[in-house]
Every structure is written in structure tokens, then in C-alpha cells.
Design a protein that fits this description.
Helix content is 18%, strand content 32%. It is α+β, with helices and mostly antiparallel strands. Helix 8 runs parallel beside helix 9. The longest helix has 18 residues. 50% of the residues are buried.
Length: 707
């Protein structure tokens, strides 16, 4: 009996494999249970991060990939390389990991194999399921993925409810155990929402442990697979994967050779390291585009915010309520409020040219807006026919004569089938008239009916749009799409996304002052966000009603650094910028593309201060933001080159400013700084600080106070 027990224990142990990160701080252990179930666990500096957690996939049409496995082969590998993104927060990124590839074979069906690939970086773990092509496995349908994340305690978590169709919820901060009692309150009304029946949250999921570890769970390289949510077991502090289903309830249709997206766990004892992580990007494939010369960051304004606040403008041209694309819109009665008219667009072009903006977004230029919303209508837009008061040819010629581009807008009303049928024609139209970027939108319930925004079909749709756009040298900025997973490395023309609760919600109930201190730790972990910052008129009662933007004016400036995007909008009405030309200067100056990013200080839900160096220039920009509480930000300038002084222009909240009182009160001052300088800067409640740092000659530096 003793011999049998020993042999049984030895048989279990030989199935175990250990992987350490290059810096030895992280350790991942893989092993099989007595039932042949794959499991993993993760520790950081000898502290448990993920307790033993099961891995597996349940299927509809073939035996499940859950148990009965044995290890038939293991391979370990190390990679240490540096690659250069086309654009981004860094001009070069180190990709350094140790890898373990485990080949598993099932006893029944006999000889069927899957592989588990683990990559352990200094900042976290990525792993995925791989299905080699083999005689025993060709096609299969996923019923559910059973990836577990067994946590070590009742962590603090920043979360939004699991939903197949929207990620535009406000964040809730709580303990994991408190989620059941808060879930109803957290499920406020969002159009086309489809809350998951089980208790669940969305990724990226950001947590902090009682002993000071920061843990972020998400996914990377979401391709041909549904997005992952997390089922929550609030008593055992266990998360498990929950995939988005299709119209008939299946989760994914697979054909070997294939793989799942990477499941990612970023971990550190410093919050700043979470924001500095490039793990998700590193797990995505390099681009296969041969020519990327046409892809470029852009700063833009738009005919947009006026639709939300002024009450004088509408996307629709006419008073009709039941329109068809075959109708003659010249015979319709104009409503007198159409925003995308020739005069208004020319005014925006003039403003963009005067202030050095690259482009002007125009929403509502094309026919169909009269009944686009809420009707689940398929033939809603054709993307090529302008309203009678929008002269495509003349406006583009006018814009180009001023050195400005017009940015296309393709709202699909979630009719993806209609968009795919018209996609080539729409992009050919853009090429004809000189548009090189398009903002796409997916407001509403998806067509094909029954599909979800986050399902496999739509995931493939978004990638199809990006790939097709590349053929026409067009950049994509998608709104209401699935949350990003680092695919902008593979498809660098997919230059920005919304995919979260952005600035427009300031006009629809407002955003909490801590919202943007959470987003970089959640939504922006997967990629840049078109947050549409820059609102100077934060008290919107001047337009009617009692709505307000819950920030100071200076916090809006800081967003251009803290809310990263290579596609940045100055979202307010042009006349509001003309009222504050000195503050507007920061938006005009701030870079879009960066050589280096320094996370100076951060705490999710409380504050963030970031410094970035402009790509190819000796200029640095700093943004610091806080939640509803006033605080003193500490800005350490040690990132500057040593031995030289620079001019820092500091845009700061006035002493009596706050998000709800005196939000437009600010100060601007210039000082001398160098690598030894430190600034202690007051941030108002809901406020921020923005700093530009540039070289100056002796005459410019003379007389400036030195920090």
C-alpha cells in the first residue's frame, strides 16, 4: 500500500511544471489533478496571487477538454527582444518572457491533444489554449470556457457589470463580497444593454489586495473568439471565464489549427507598474501590413458636442419620421437645426486651420438620421449620399486648401450586415474625396439579429473592417465596439476606440470625478481610448437644464496626457476655446505620439500623474488628475536629461477652484526645471494639473523662478 501511494504521488508530481519570470519575482506552477484536470497557480515575491485554478473548455459536439489528461511533452523557451511600435506610449518596447508549452493528451478520446502555452513576464502572466491540427480533432463548438482565477481574499475591485452588448457602465468600487448587493444599482440604463444573468463583471478587472498587491485580469489578441467576462463567486473569491454567446447560444465555432486569446494577469506591488505594463501589447502579433507610411496620429475637432449640449443642432436634416434610402431628401422639409451644413462645417475648418488641427470630424452629414435610432432597421445608412445642405466635393476642396482633412463618420446603427455589404463602396467614396480616417459607431442592437457586440461574429466583423480599411489606406476609430485587447499592434490603422463611458455621458447624467482615475487601470489596459476630452464650458446650464461636467477646466487639459490616444479630439465648441486662449494653448501644443512614458504616481480610483516625452522632440508633457478629493500631486522631474534647464509652463487649478464650484478658475505660470527639480502641486477637488516642458535659450530662461 505504501509503495502504491508513493508511486501515485510521484505520478502526480511529474505532471507538475514550474516557470519563473526573468526577474524571479513571479512563479507560475502548472500541474494536473488526480482526475487529469489542468491547473495553474501564480505567486509574486512569494505572495500568492492566484491559488490553484482549473483550466478547460466545455464543448457541444465533441468530448470536452476538461479532464482525463496526461502530460506528454513540455518545452521551455526564453525570448528577450525589443520592437518598435508604429505609434504609441513608447517608441520601443521590450518583450522579455520565459515560456512553458505543455502538450496534453486525453485518454478518451484516445490520443487527442491540446496545448497550454504560458508566458511569464516580469509584470505578469499570459496563457492560452492551443488546438493543433490532428486526426482526432477538426471542428468543434465551444459551450463554455472554464478558466478559473481563484483569488486569495476579498480584494478591493473596480468593476462594471458583465454585459454582452455594452461597456458603457459607470464603475463601482467595492469588495468582491459586496458585488451581489451592488449589482442592481450598478446596472443603470444603457441603450441596447444585455446584462448577463449570472453574477459577473467585465474585464479588464482591476483589484487591490489587503497586503498591497495590484492585480489586473484581462485578455490579449481577441481574434475569432468571443469576449471574456468573469463569473463571480463572492463567497470563495473565485472568478471564472464567461464567454459571450451567439444568437443560438453557442460561444465559438473553431477549426484546427487554432487557439484562444491570451488570458492575462498583470501584477505588481506598485500601482504605477500596472499602468506601465506592455504585457498585453507584447502578446499580440506584429502587423503584417507592408506599407504603414499612411498611418499617423491626428488631433481633431468636430461637429459633435453641439448635438449633446446646445439644443440647436441635430444629426437629422428633415422633419420626416419614416425615411428610406431611396427617398428624395431634397423634397423633405428641413428641420432648421441640421448641424452638418456647409456654413457650420466651413466655420470648423477655419478654426482648425487657424489653430493647427489636423482634421474636422463631421457627424450627421449623410442621409438616414431621421429614424436611425431604436428601430432595429437594417437599411439605415448608405455611407455615400450626403444631405442636400452638405456639399462633399466643395467642403473637401475647402478643407484641403486650408491644410485640413475632413474625418468621415460611419454610424452603422449596429447594422453590421448593411455596413459589410457597403464597406468597399464607402471606402472608395472616402478615397475619392480625400478622407483618410473614419469614426465608426455601433449604437443599438446588432444585425444579424440575436448577435451581440462582444460575440465571435462581431469580433470578426471589427477586424474585417480594419483589414478592409487598410486596403484603402484608411484609419479606423471605432465606437461601441468590443473592448480592445492590444490588436492595434497587429492592425495599427485601428488607431483608437471608445468602448467605455466617455465624455458624451457628461451630457447624459454626468461622470463621477473618480471615473477617469479608474479608466487607465481598466479600459485603457487594452488600448487607446477616444475619450473626447477638452470640455472648457463645464457648467452646461448655460445651454439650458442643470447638467455639468464634473471636472475643472485644468483636469480636462490633463486628460491629453493621462487618457492616452494617438487620435485626440478637442471636443468643446470652438467659441469656448476662443474664450480661454491661454489654456487652449496646452491642447494645441501637446503631442500625440511618444518616445517614453513615466508613471510618476498612481492609485486606482484616487489619482494619476504621468509624464511623457514627445516622439523625436525635446519636449515633455505632464498630466495629473485627482478624484473628488483635493490633494497635492508630487511631480518628480528626474526623467529629464541631466545637466540642463528647461522651461515648464504649469497650468493649475486656482486655490478656490473645484469641479462643482469655480471649475474655470486656473493659473498659468512659467518656471525653470531640471532633473533635480520637484514640484508639490495643489489639485482641486475633481481637478488636475497640466505641464508642458520645452527647451529655451538663455534669454527665455533668465528671470524665471527655478524649482
Amino acid at each position: 500500500m505504501f509503495l502504491l501511494l508513493f508511486l501515485g504521488t510521484f505520478a502526480t508530481l511529474v505532471q507538475a511544471q514550474t516557470l519563473t519570470s526573468p526577474d524571479k519575482n513571479l512563479t507560475m506552477q502548472f500541474e494536473l489533478t488526480g482526475k487529469g484536470e489542468p491547473t495553474y497557480q501564480l505567486t509574486y515575491k512569494k505572495k500568492p496571487v492566484i491559488k490553484q485554478s482549473k483550466l478547460g473548455i466545455a464543448t457541444h459536439d465533441v468530448p470536452a477538454f476538461l479532464e482525463g489528461f496526461k502530460v506528454v511533452n513540455t518545452q521551455q523557451n526564453t525570448l528577450d527582444e525589443t520592437w518598435k511600435p508604429l505609434w504609441g506610449e513608447e517608441s520601443s518596447i521590450r518583450n522579455h518572457y520565459n515560456e512553458l508549452l505543455v502538450t496534453l493528451e486525453q485518454q478518451e478520446p484516445k490520443g487527442r491533444q491540446i496545448q497550454l502555452r504560458f508566458r511569464l513576464f516580469n509584470d505578469g502572466l499570459g496563457f492560452r489554449y492551443e488546438f493543433p491540427q490532428q486526426e482526432q480533432l477538426n471542428y468543434f463548438i465551444i459551450k463554455e470556457e472554464h478558466t478559473e482565477f481563484n483569488l486569495t481574499g476579498d480584494h478591493k475591485i473596480f468593476w462594471i457589470r458583465g454585459d454582452y452588448n455594452t461597456n458603457e457602465y459607470a464603475y463601482t468600487t467595492s469588495r468582491i463580497s459586496e458585488i451581489p448587493n451592488l449589482i442592481e444599482k450598478a446596472t443603470h440604463d444603457v441603450h441596447a444593454q444585455f446584462p448577463i444573468d449570472t453574477l459577473s463583471v467585465q474585464t479588464p478587472s482591476m483589484m487591490k489586495t489587503a497586503d498591497g498587491l495590484y492585480i489586473n485580469i484581462h485578455e490579449a489578441a481577441l481574434v475569432n473568439y468571443p469576449a471574456m467576462h468573469l463569473n463571480v463567486d463572492p463567497k470563495n473569491f473565485r472568478f471564472s471565464s464567461h464567454l459571450t454567446p451567439d444568437a443560438v447560444g453557442n460561444k465559438g465555432y473553431m477549426q484546427t489549427e487554432t487557439q484562444t486569446p491570451w488570458r492575462t494577469i498583470v501584477v505588481s506591488d506598485k500601482a504605477a507598474d500596472i499602468l506601465a505594463s506592455r504585457l498585453i501589447l507584447n502578446l499580440n502579433e506584429p502587423t503584417k501590413y507592408e506599407d504603414v507610411s499612411w498611418i499617423r496620429p491626428m488631433k481633431y475637432i468636430g461637429v459633435w458636442w453641439e448635438y449633446f449640449v446646445s439644443g440647436k443642432s441635430s444629426w437629422a436634416y428633415s422633419t420626416e419620421t419614416n425615411v428610406k434610402l431611396t427617398d428624395d431628401f431634397t423634397k423633405f422639409t428641413p428641420n432648421g437645426r441640421h448641424g452638418a451644413n456647409n456654413e457650420n462645417v466651413r466655420r470648423h475648418i477655419d478654426f482648425a486651420a487657424k489653430h493647427g488641427f489636423d482634421a474636422v470630424l463631421v457627424e450627421g452629414w449623410n442621409i438616414g438620421w431621421e429614424d436611425w435610432f431604436g428601430n432595429w432597421k437594417e437599411e439605415v445608412f448608405d455611407f455615400v449620399t450626403p444631405y442636400p445642405d452638405f456639399d462633399v466635393k466643395a467642403l473637401n476642396e475647402y478643407a484641403h486648401s486650408k491644410g485640413v482633412q475632413l474625418m468621415m463618420h460611419h454610424e452603422t446603427s449596429a447594422s453590421a450586415t448593411n455596413y459589410e455589404r457597403r464597406l468597399d463602396t464607402a471606402f472608395q467614396f472616402m478615397n475619392k474625396y480625400g478622407y483618410d480616417a473614419v469614426k465608426t459607431g455601433y449604437v443599438g442592437k446588432i444585425i444579424p439579429r440575436g448577435e451581440q457586440h462582444d460575440g465571435q461574429w462581431m469580433v470578426n466583423h471589427y477586424i474585417h473592417v480594419a483589414n478592409t480599411a487598410a486596403k484603402y489606406k484608411i484609419m479606423i476609430n471605432s465606437h461601441e465596439a468590443v473592448r480592445p485587447t492590444g490588436l492595434h499592434r497587429t492592425y495599427p490603422n485601428w488607431i483608437a476606440q471608445e468602448s467605455a463611458r466617455g465624455t458624451e455621458f457628461e451630457a447624459m447624467g454626468g461622470l463621477a470625478p473618480d471615473h477617469t482615475t479608474i479608466l487607465p487601470f481598466t479600459r485603457l489596459m487594452g488600448g487607446p481610448m477616444d475619450y473626447t476630452p477638452g470640455i472648457f464650458q463645464t457648467d452646461m446650464s448655460i445651454y439650458g437644464g442643470n447638467q455639468r461636467v464634473n471636472t475643472t477646466l485644468v483636469k480636462q487639459l490633463a486628460y491629453y496626457v493621462t487618457m492616452y490616444s494617438p487620435l485626440q479630439m478637442a471636443a468643446d465648441l470652438p467659441e469656448n476655446y476662443e474664450r480661454f486662449p491661454d489654456a487652449f494653448q496646452f491642447i494645441k501644443d501637446v503631442a500625440l505620439d511618444w518616445d517614453k512614458t513615466h508613471i510618476l504616481e498612481a492609485e486606482p480610483g484616487d489619482y494619476i500623474t504621468i509624464a511623457r516625452k514627445a516622439k523625436g522632440r525635446n519636449e515633455w508633457y505632464i498630466g495629473g488628475i485627482t478624484d473628488e478629493n483635493a490633494r497635492t500631486a508630487t511631480v518628480d522631474f528626474s526623467f529629464l536629461p541631466k545637466g540642463k534647464d528647461y522651461i515648464a509652463t504649469i497650468y493649475a487649478d486656482a486655490k478656490d477652484a473645484s469641479w462643482n464650484k469655480n471649475p474655470q478658475k486656473y493659473t498659468i505660470r512659467k518656471v525653470r526645471v531640471n532633473a533635480k527639480s520637484t514640484l508639490k502641486q495643489h489639485l482641486a477637488p475633481g481637478g488636475g494639473v497640466a505641464i508642458s516642458i520645452k527647451e529655451g535659450d538663455r534669454s527665455e530662461l533668465r528671470g524665471l523662478k527655478k524649482l
